Description:
Blueprint: E1 2-6, E2 13-16, H1 21-28, E3 32-39, E4 42-49, E5 59-63, E6 66-69, E7 72-78, E8 81-83, H2 87-97
Antiparallel strand pairs: 1-2, 1-7, 3-4, 4-7, 5-6, 7-8
Amino acid sequence: MKAILKKVGEMPERIDIENTLDALQQAVGGHIETVSYMLLSSRVVVICDEEGRIKGKPYNCTIGATSFCGDILIVGADEEDFADLPEAVGYFIIEAMSGRI
């Protein structure tokens, strides 16, 4: 699945990741929690460690009104399933998180 991985203290990067619970949990370092947003007419989902704050993971970024601690993934959504992040949306997210827009 096409996604963006945003590690703490690093620039976001496009990745391909298996759409499995194990792969998603490994990427964020714990049990997953999701937060959905609408962006450029597409539904995107931020996947994070549900206990990131409790575990004392460092601050990563703020999206909307939500601050995330620890590494996060950003993926697309198709109905109730995770899906590839649309290319245009991924480009916008990377540019925004990199401070270029």
